[in-house]
Amino acid sequence: MAVKNLREAYGQALLTLGKEHSEVVALEADLRNSTRSLLFFGEFPERYFEMGIAEQNMTSTAAGLALAGKIPFVHSFAVFSAGRAYDQLRNSICIPNLKVRICGSSAGLSDFGDGKTHQAVEDMAIMRALPNMTVLCPADAIEVGKMMERVVDWPGPVYLRINRNDLPFVTSESEPYQIGKMTRLRDGSDAAIFACGVMVSRALEAAEKLAAEGISVRVVNASTIKPFDAKAAIEHSRGVRAIVTAEEHSIIGGLGSCVVEALRRVAHAPIEFVGIPDSFGLSAENYDLLLERFGLTADAIARAVKGLLAQ
Amino acid sequence: MQNEKTPKDLAAIAYTLRRNVVEMIGVGKAGHLGGSSSLAEVVATLYFRKMRFNPKAIHDPDRDRFVLSKGHAVLVQYAALVELGVIPREELYKVKTIDGMLQGHPDMVRTPGIEAVTGSLGQGLSIAVGMALGFKIDRRTSRVYVVMGDGEQSEGQLWEAAMAAARYKVDNLTGILDRNRVQATGPTKDIFDIPNLEEKWAAFGWNVIAVDGHDTSALLGAFDAVEQVKGRPSLIIANTVKGKGVSFAENSAAFHNGSFTEEQYRKALSEIDEARSALSGSTGGRG
Known about the structure:
The complex is a heterodimer of chains A (311) and B (287). Chain A has 311 residues and is an alpha/beta fold. In chain A, 39% of the residues lie in helices and 21% in strands. Chain A has a seven-stranded mixed beta sheet with strand order 3-2-4-5-7-6-12, with helices on both faces. Chain A has a five-stranded mixed beta sheet with strand order 9-11-10-13-14, with helices on both faces. The longest helix of chain A has 15 residues, at 6-20. Chain A is globular and about 60 Å long. Chain B is α/β, with parallel strands linked by helices. Helices cover 39% and strands 11% of the residues of chain B. In chain B, α9 (216-227) links the parallel β5 and β6 (234-239). The two termini of chain B are 21 Å apart. The interface between A and B is medium-sized, with 31 and 33 residues.
């Protein structure tokens, strides 16, 4: 399967937006090589603000730039974008509903080597609890590009969760993309898997394995965590005997919670979560090993499906 | 644009603002009198003389901006916006009520004339820096005025912003530090003393001036002077008295966010009216 780095796709998309929209500006907290905001810096140094290692100031400064008519993109690792500057996001940006775009780069466990302090396992939960905030978790480089095209005009603040690594392509260029919609990537009748980010490819892999065992599985890419398309979630949950959610995030407050919240008023099949148990991350020599340690694999998803079907 | 108010006019307007603040607090309800009163001359001088701010065109992109980082003092900003006709006077009496437009802290979503959401302390300077950077990109001549408290100086984010402002040479920004020397719990020297503020800000690359924050002539001179300083941001340290103009509230932490008895309320109003009439001459808004 062809792969592409999500950070690189993000950096290229930001550069393109810079060319098309003069009001786009970027702020960085000394991680331009990692977040790939350096591509924008190279072309538009006068619209690029290196704010130093000071995420709180960077975040409120972005609010001021938005109030001056700019569309700021704020960059750091997800753990700092969402955590270190939480109060600034809440008060300076979300209350006035400003058009600031927050790039949570190296999200989830994807910064595998750096360990707990640099791995965001709870960012979607805290970002989605903020009124006015939109939360996006793209599955591959193609989706990052489409998301960025849509994000520039989207009203209010947006949090973009960007994986650090090369991920396989699971979406196609031709498929239409809208913020707030989920896409069914594969149809099936026995079980439905809702996945986001890196776990979409794992879910497709699980569906393939299960098909070989005669189990027919539907796979849905839920790349908009908020506003969550509850109607579509209900639709995609119809008729199956098992529902599994798969995310590279704590099982508290992420995609699993979104699906349960969406289904709360309808009768539905039993639901299982595949995600990070209530714990912090860990340093590892590579990403796949770390995903395996936390049970974020195609096999784990397949086991979850079979477990529910056996009930 | 404003009529040219004299420093004496501005001094009288400051007392009109104080009267509005006291009326907003009323009897038996809490309100941030101390930090609002200490700021009255600063707010009067900016809104009624210094700032490019047309009350009939509050969204003019070329207006100057007033950001109240010490958001709890918003009553005095409401007072000014009422006198300018931006906020209807009847809203004064509905402050902090459920269907009113005036919130406990500055809320640009609900209140016309408010430029940002502040009140979680330490964020206003960063917001102001962002505005100033945006104006520089667009070559707008708007200035940004941002008011901080002295208790607020312990917020680390202010010092991050101070560094960024110097790094990006935002000379279209004027900081005002309302040094009233009392914070919520007591005198700043007892609660969390931050000595040598002048030296600290200067060391962070700022042009620093200290003035009597109740002297409208000195304030005007300082605002004019810092506009001429290029290549670095300026800070005006306004030495003020917390609760200024209400004798029993002056220098008192009890009136940081205190309430009046009926008797105190009457006394506050009569002291303010007396001070205002002593400053004979024209007044802003109601005479």
